[in-house]
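Lab notebook, bench 4. We co-purified these components, and the gel suggests they stay together. Before we commit to crystallization screens, I want a quick structural picture of the whole thing.
Request: model the full complex, all chains together.
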Amino acid sequence: MPETHAETVLEFEDVLLQFPEGDRPALDGISFALSAGHSCVIMGAAGSGKTVLLKTAVGLLKPDAGRVHLFGEEITGMTEKELFHLRAKVGILFQEGGLFDSLTIEENVAYPLVNQPGAHYPPEEVHRRVVEALRLVELERTLDKFPSELSGGMRRRVGIARANVTEPPLVLYDSPTAGLDPITAHTIMGFIIKERDTKNTTTVMVTHRYQDGNLLAKYRYNQVTGRLERATSGAGAAGPPTRFMVLRQGKLVFEGTQQELEASADSYVRKFLRSVGG
Amino acid sequence: MLDFLKPPVLAFQEFFLLAGRAFRNIFRKPHYFDDISLQMDLIGVGSLPIVALTGFFTGAIMALQMSRALNQYGAASTVGQIVSISLVREMGPVLSALLVAGRNASGIASELGSMKVTEQIDAMRALGTDPIQKLVTPRLIAMCIVLPLLVVIADFIGMIGGYLVACPLLKLTTATQYWSSAWRALEYNDIAQGLLKPFVFAVVISLVGCFYGIRTTGGTQGVGLATTRAVVVSSVWIFVLTFFIGKLFVSL
Ligand SMILES: Nc1ncnc2c1ncn2[C@@H]1O[C@H](COP(=O)(O)OP(=O)(O)OP(=O)(O)O)[C@@H](O)[C@H]1O
Ligand SMILES: [Mg+2]
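Here is the predicted assembly.
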């Protein structure tokens, strides 16, 4: 892995976003920067603005004030067409899935390969990549099924495959384990870590479970053994650095490392740490 | 002070923005022909039986109800003329449009609405597709092609319905007289009016359905609300617009 000077992939500068029907801003003065190759875990209560933050990051929502830089480019003034080119470098798993009901799993995963600007692959190449992406989440046998025929956990896995099929340098996961049983949630986290470590992607994950953040920070995928293992500090086997952010009612109330998070005295922040596992 | 006016005015403005973008996309690449033909099938073939049935009974009922009055004035031979003019000018376009609004404005709003709440529309934008180009424009084009055709069919079947009541059933007039008076009664003005209306209604039904669908918020409950609004608003606009188009043609 070439250790270049880490560039900033995503940067928020004092971002404010107010929905006309909302009584308080959904994002209120958010500033942070995320370096290439780092992981970022965003936590916060329901309605604290996590989803809005992710959507603002790729220009699906426009802030009322402040600036958003994606891959060094200021996106708040961009047209939708210009944004298409930048979004091609970002994979997204949506909270509600965002899989197209009318398309098969294969067509869903192939969608970014076929529709994103600059992606002109021959059909065999598309098929090969789709199968490969689905194999990574162990779903290569469901190509011809429709999303409605899969379980909730399987749909999430398809979403993960679709977010990663173009091998984008930045991947955003919105609540990948929400509403799943602990075993499936753990499997999903395994796939996310696997995607991150096989492709060295910058990963942003929204979650309300601290265990997930802990896994992302402490574990890495060993490509030799094909298993997750605890990242041991030193010996060059540490996972990528992980930042934690905590949102509360649209405000960023914490930003820092896991150690800093665990040492935080803020009662709101501490509530998220209750269910620490491992 | 006029704060209560702000939401409807904003909605109106947003509607016209959507309409503008949908129309502009007709001339822009990429064109989703598959989606257009799928929608034409869904709207046209799907609505054909109900539109034909309604057309038939509209014509039949009109002949039936007119028969006594016409007999009273000894004008029973003009039944064909009355049926054809009222069908082509008003009943055919308005009734077909109302049926299609009930069937398809709701269908469009609920389909796009559930796509919105499951973030499929966001996913589209994230994956390099303009949802207006992919979802709205094909529905607009399909509706504009299909609704006028449905209306022509409804008009014709309605005349057959009127004929069956007027001639075999009530013996008001002869078949030749019915059809020739029906045919001769129609002027260019009537036909222009009868074809302009379904075209305008098609724009209203498809865009209102898409508009409420795309604006859906608040989960599955929101989808139900969007569907209801789409049907109510498009039906009301059909009545308002048919009045104004009628007025335009009367003063011509
Ligand atoms: N399209 C919208 N229109 C109006 N208000 C919205 C919209 N989307 C989000 N909001 C509001 O913005 C706030 C933040 O919402 P957001 O979806 O980001 O929450 P979240 O942190 O993702 O919560 P959850 O954990 O439930 O997913 C909420 O108060 C919500 O009501
Ligand atoms: Mg959310």
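Residues A 19, 21-22, 26, 44, 46-52, 95, 175, 208; B 217 surround adenosine-5'-triphosphate (ligand 1) (CB under 6 Å). Worth comparing against the SEC data before the next meeting. The helical segments of chain B are 6-26, 33-72, 79-117, 120-126, 131-169, 175-185, 188-214, 219-250.
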